[in-house]
Amino acid sequence: MRLADAQTVVAQSNFSGGDEGWTVGTLFQPTSISVPVQWRANGGIPGAHIRTDIPAVPLLAFAAPASFLGDRSSLYGGVIEYQINPDVTVPMNDRMLVVISSGNLNLQLMLPASISAGWGSASLPFNTDTAPWEVTPTDPDRWGEHGVLATEQQMRDVLSNLTSLRIPAVY
After folding, report:
1. How far is 139 from 155, CA to CA, in rounded Å?
2. Which residues is 2 bridged to in the sheet?
3. Which of these, 113, 107, 154, 112, lies nearest to 133 by C-alpha position?
């Protein structure tokens, strides 16, 4: 897992020494549930990885540690890259791929995709020109649904005070 601006890697986890502070929550409320993160020394790309074995919770997500958060203004135009390993091939219709927050504003990126069983990679842009970032609906009954398209200023505001970054833990 890494965050990179146009020039350099800004934050990265390779899990070589443990879970590196990653936690499990839900995509929209990372502290609303407590699910154990399981660290594995082998079987990832490359080597170590984290996982959870709690597939029944809808919208379960890995939440980034503090080293990924804060003023990440330089990430506008950069990317988030991560590897995923679903147990089965999953056809995804507008599946949530990442949720970022500044505390009072959540942005989500939902892209149509199909994820195959086995390790694969995601590289998602932090900009509103080439990626359809959306403002997450505030009504909890609508979480997981499409929101209105985010503006460049909203994306920049969230990145300048990044309080949460979450990626799905279950596909």
Report:
1. 20
2. 12, 81
3. 107
Rounded to whole angstroms, the Cα distance separating 83 from 120 reads 6
Reported pTM: 0.84
Structure tokens at 85: 């390993």
Alpha carbon distance 18, 15 (integer Å)? 5
pLDDT (tens digit per residue) in 6-26: 778 888 888 888 888 888 887
Distance between CA atoms of residues 69 and 11, nearest Å:
9
CA-to-CA distance for 105 and 31, rounded, in angstroms? 16
The long-range contacts involving 29-38, CB below 8 angstroms and separated by at least 24 positions, are 30/61, 30/63, 30/164, 30/166, 31/63, 33/57, 35/60, 37/62
Cα–Cα distance for residue pair 70/59, rounded to 1 Å: 24
Name the residue among 55, 65, 60 with its Cα closest to residue 18: 65
Average pLDDT, the chain: 81
Q: Is 134 exposed, middle or buried (0-12, 13-18, 19+ CB in 10 A)?
A: buried
Q: Which positions ≥6 away from 130 have C-beta within 8 Å?
A: none
